[in-house]
Amino acid sequence: MAEDESDQVLLAMPRGGFNDMLCQLELCVRAAERSGRLLVVDTRQSGLEDDLFEYFDLAPGQRIVALRDWSGTVATAHGRITATHGDTETVWQLPEGDLDLRYDEGQPQDAPILLHYAHGGGELGVAFLARLRLKPALVDRILGARRAIGGRYAAVHIRHTDYQTDFRTAFRLIARRMRGWRLLICSDSQIPIGYFAKTHGPEFDWTTTDTARSSDNSPLHYSGGTRVSERNAEMLTDLYLMATAARLVMVDTLNSKRSGFAVLAAHMRRRLDVASLDQGAEGVPALTLKARFPLWLGSLWSNPFRVWRLRKLGDRPSGPTILHPTPE
Asked: What b-and-e string marks burial along 236-273, b requiring 16 or more CB atoms within 10 Å of the CB?
């Protein structure tokens, strides 16, 4: 990734979990394209806590530069971010609390460097993922995990750390509707895994991964320590195992509609070229963005029940819980 010469830069320092990070980066790509700025990506402040390009390469034609390939410098200390670019040094005072500092708010739009230090999820994450290519070592790891599962399977995602899930009700409905399926249970918490093993495990052919999980409801990202690269590889393996499942079950949390991680996997499930991924080719795109409506129509003939959603009807806690196929 050689640096693209540019007098103006948009410095993207996304925050939040993996889907939040991707969503913010896609917002910045589009803003940089409109303004003609070079996009410099620094993902160390996100839940990844590492350089995104340790795990992915860029697809050809992207006007994006990793921080390590940029001629400028970035330093974060004492509640400030300082960036140097050529002969220019720019300092931003970070907002107190969990507030964002956006490129399009409160910054002179003709400045040599604009900073985007923000979090926030949504459905744009898959668009930035399509700009990336998995590193060959990660492809091999994911393929090895898929082979270990063996055959067709349904993946279930339960988020139960910073956001809580009524996993007992969820597993009861899943056990009823997914009977006969081999199940892959993915979670950021050991508690739902242990519950499923004890309560429903004997009824199913099921498995889980060796991913490290929280035992005290603390989020896995921002955990620090020496396992960052291994933790990220585990996270990405789970993501691709979910996205390549014959069926994917998203489970709503109690205080949020859907986990962004599960939403990302669901969008990938519709756009992931599983056959290409299984070939293990170096630099394989593995992800092709297509219009959503034709994809949904096509699924009616090929596999109409690829993605399922488990949620409550209405806003009342006492409302009925349902599990249904969804085009989302």
From this structure: bbbbbbbbbbbbbbbbbbeeeebbbbbbbbbbbbbbbe
Taking only the tens place, the pLDDT of each residue in 260-319 is 899 999 888 877 666 566 655 444 544 566 666 666 666 555 556 788 888 888 766 677
Q: What is the DSSP letter of 16?
A: S
- What proportion of the chain, given as a percentage, has pLDDT over 90? 51
**Nearest CA to 161 among 190, 135, 139?**
190
**Main-chain phi, psi angles of 273, to 5 degrees:** -85, 90
Dist CA 281 CA 221 (whole Å): 30
Q: How far apart are CA 266 and CA 292, in angstroms?
A: 12
Beta bridge partners of 9: 38, 113
Q: What's the rounded Cα separation, in Å, for the pair 139 and 37?
A: 32
Rounded Cα gap, residues 243 and 130, in angstroms = 14
- The pair of structure tokens assigned to 220 is 């896995």
pLDDT in tens, 23-65: 999 999 999 999 999 999 999 999 999 999 999 999 888 899 9
In a 13 Å sphere around the CA of 59, the CA atoms on its Cβ side amount to 12
What is the reported pTM? 0.88
For residues 178-184, average pLDDT? 92
Alpha carbon of residue 313 to chain centroid: 26
The answer to whether 7 and 36 are in contact (CB under 8 A) is no
- Stated length of the chain: 328
The domain ranges of the chain are 9-116, 135-325
- Assigned CATH class of 135-325: alpha beta
3-state SS class at 86: coil
Residue 302, SS3 per DSSP: coil
Do the Cβ atoms of 323 and 156 come closer than 8 Å?
no
Strands 183-187 and 56-58, by their bridges, are unpaired
